[in-house]
Amino acid sequence: MPSTLIHSGTLVDANGERPGWVHVDGGRIVSTGDPSEQAPSADRSVDATGRYVTPGFVDIHGHGAGGAHYQDGTEEALAALAAMRQFGTTRAVASFVSTTIDRMVHSIIGARSAMDLDPGLLGVHVEGPFIAPGRKGAHDRRVLCHPDRESVDRLLDVAPGIVRQITIAPELPGAMEAISRFLAAGIPVAVGHTDCDYDAAREAFDRGASLVTHAFNAMAQIEGRFPGVLGAAVAAEHVTIEVIADGIHVHPASIALLFAAAPGRIALVTDAMAGAGASDGCYTLGSLDVDVADGRAVVAGTDTLAGSTLTPDRALRTAVHDCGIALHDAVGALTDTPARAIGEQKPALLVSGAPGDLVLLAVDLSVVDVLLG
Predict the structure, then answer these.
(1) 72, 271, 336, 357: which one is catalytic?
(2) Which of 83, 135, 333, 353 is a Cys-bridge partner for 268, taking CB atoms 3.0 to 4.6 Å apart?
(3) Which residues are part of a known binding site?
(4) Distant-in-sequence, close-in-space partners of 236: CB < 8 Å, separation ≥ 6
């Protein structure tokens, strides 16, 4: 693999913005510097004049893209990740919608082959079936269940090295015990698709749950006397809060409020389904039919949102242009924050030792190029 020097750009990561260069060798960043420092020689050189240079985006909640879903087998999973790469995603967690425990176990096992073929696929997010029927969103009510001991045992048996997070509604019978068991196995737990109140959410966070699944969606909203899940999440400083910045799921002012309330703890996610990076039309999500029109995905025949067609570069533009978020904070929410939320050991920063996966952005924050390794 040839060494590469990316020079004359503006480096942007969670630590800020600065002019400079990045030297990549052996698939990793080996050094960075500012224009006053002598850049090392390299096998090839990339002129980033007038461009932003960021770490590769890390999407910890997405179901698919380019007409393919991660949950539909190895070839489909690889195709979905490949489709998202053109928009800057270099590492992703495959989110699986609710299905029976038998099928979920089968899907989790199957994900291993895709992970072996593409190291950018970090693992699986089990989004259900341990969720509240009243907050199911685009999940099939018929397969939802409580996290009883046998079901949890079966998931834990196949989870090692594959499952990177699981969403649970804390109010379900057996949920608190399940949260503790998943955490003991090293699997981050997200609170989401839930009817729980502040106290139940706080108990889950006190036990160690450390994420919120797509803030403001599939949960009770914040009210003066009822702070709910988000009130508890803001108060718990170890909790990372996902948000879908597509201008459909959450109002830009609400996104700005989250960034202000929990700085450094917001993860921009796509929650994308197969229609992301593809045309409008008819799709499926799990066992449900989904219609996509004008980029809006809904369960067929309803107004229920069924994931999104969001791409990470568009989430970045929404955060910066519509929500007024500083560029380095928005980039951090697409890179370092989500990586840390799932315990990823490889940082998503422009620092020595980090993966040499980089995104070059134009001034308007559109993707110019994606450099892998």
Answers:
(1) 271
(2) 333
(3) 127, 138, 193, 214, 217-218, 225, 249, 305-307
(4) 202, 205, 206
Name the nearest CA neighbour of 166 among 117, 124, 227.
124
Q: What structural domains does the chain harbor?
A: 4-54+353-371 (2.30.40.10), 57-277+303-341 (3.20.20.140)
Can you tell me which residue has the tokens 């060798």? 25
Contact status, residue 40 vs residue 61, Cβ threshold 8 Å = no
Binding residue numbers for substrate: 138, 217-218, 225, 249, 305-307
- d(C-alpha 119, C-alpha 73), whole Å: 16
Binding-site residues for Zn(2+), please? Answer: 127, 193, 214
Check if 195 is active-site: no
358 within 8 A of 24, measured Cβ to Cβ: yes
Strand 89-96 with 121-127, pairing: parallel
Q: What is the pLDDT along the chain (373 residues), one digit of tens a residue?
A: 789 999 999 999 999 999 999 999 999 999 999 999 988 999 999 999 999 999 999 999 999 999 999 999 999 999 999 999 999 999 999 999 999 999 999 999 999 999 999 999 999 999 999 999 999 999 999 999 999 999 999 999 999 999 999 999 999 999 999 999 999 999 999 999 999 999 999 999 999 999 999 999 999 999 999 999 999 999 999 999 999 999 999 999 999 999 999 999 999 999 999 999 999 999 999 889 999 999 999 999 999 999 999 999 999 999 999 999 999 999 999 999 999 999 999 999 999 999 999 999 999 999 999 999 8
Residue 290 CA to residue 304 CA, distance in Å, equals: 10
Partners of 190 in beta bridges? 167, 211
| Cα–Cα distance measured from residue 140 to residue 53, given in angstroms and rounded to the nearest whole number | 41
Cβ atoms of 129 and 144 closer than 8 Å: yes
Verdict on whether the full-model pTM lies above 0.85: yes
Determine the Cα–Cα distance for residues 87 and 272; give it in Å rounded to an integer.
12
Task: Tell me the one-letter amino acid at 287.
Answer: S
Single-letter residue type at 113: S
The residues near 199 (Cβ < 8 Å, ≥ 6 apart) are: none
